[in-house]
Write a structure and sequence with these properties.
TIM Barrel; binds phosphoenolpyruvate
Length: 247
């Protein structure tokens, strides 16, 4: 399976910083052994689309998508609008949105539905908090989050990407060990496989303080099919090293 490395820039960047970052990525990428995507803030999609134009090496992603098709939803950005800017992936259900915007499993499932209906591959984030892990609830939580998405999108599962992102590892520098991550990825794989043979081939990314130093061992795990990268995606050299670790 071809791996995917996607950079989640979160609410970082500026016209000048984005240009420098994208130019450095394109200059250093060569022929990557994996698929590569960057997910800038919505305000910069048009800029980054232009910077990437002409090179097929890096796909454009969004950090969210509205669950609504269009209309009176102030501040939302629809899947069709994202498509207008060449967006190929949309992160959906990131833990920061579940936590700060109160996104529910059902909303996440509806966002996935809207993305799929518009030809965008959703990157569906699931993950447990530290308290949930300490209570032994890790697999229960991630299965519950994924099953909401699966129930509403049963016919389109082959077109999603899943990202396992333990909340306690995001932005903390505390990475899941390769064994901890592999165990959860295997559980998610089994859940997908039980739905259909096509779903068994869904890429399951790991996210949570993946960096230039730990990427290779994480990516060597049998059920880790790539990475969703936050902090390290803002430094071209680090992001390129992670992409290189797919080889
Ligand atoms: C993320 O926010 O998706 C993420 C994985 O962040 P970081 O790599 O900074 O932990």
């Amino acid at each position: 399976m071809r791996k995917l490395i996607a950079g989640n820039w979160k609410m970082n960047g500026s016209l000048a910083a984005n240009e420098a970052l994208v130019r450095a990525l394109l200059a250093g990428l060569g022929q990557p052994a994996c698929d590569v995507a960057v997910c800038p803030p919505a305000a910069y999609l048009a800029q980054v689309q232009q910077l990437l134009a002409g090179g097929a090496a890096v796909a454009l992603g969004a950090q969210d998508v509205s669950e609504h098709e269009g209309g009176a939803y102030t501040g939302n950005v629809s899947a069709a609008m994202l498509r207008d800017f060449g967006v190929r992936y949309a992160i959906v259900g990131h833990s920061e949105r579940r936590q700060y915007q109160g996104e529910t499993d059902l909303q996440v499932a509806r966002k996935v539905q809207r993305a799929l209906a518009t030809g965008i591959s959703p990157i569906v984030c699931v993950g447990e908090t530290l308290a949930e892990r300490e209570q032994g609830l890790t697999e229960f939580i991630v299965r519950r989050q994924l099953s909401a998405v699966m129930a509403l999108n049963a016919a389109r599962l082959a077109d999603i990407v899943v990202a396992y992102e333990p909340v306690w590892a995001i932005g903390t520098g505390q990475t899941a060990t390769p064994e901890q991550a592999q165990q959860v990825h295997a559980a998610l794989r089994a859940q997908l496989k039980a739905a259909s043979a096509a779903a068994a081939g869904v890429r399951i990314l790991y996210g949570g303080s993946m960096n230039a130093a730990n990427a290779a061992t994480l990516l060597a795990q049998p059920d880790i099919d790539g990475g969703l990268i936050g902090g390290a995606a803002l430094k071209a050299a680090d992001f390129l090293t992670i992409v290189g670790a797919c080889a």
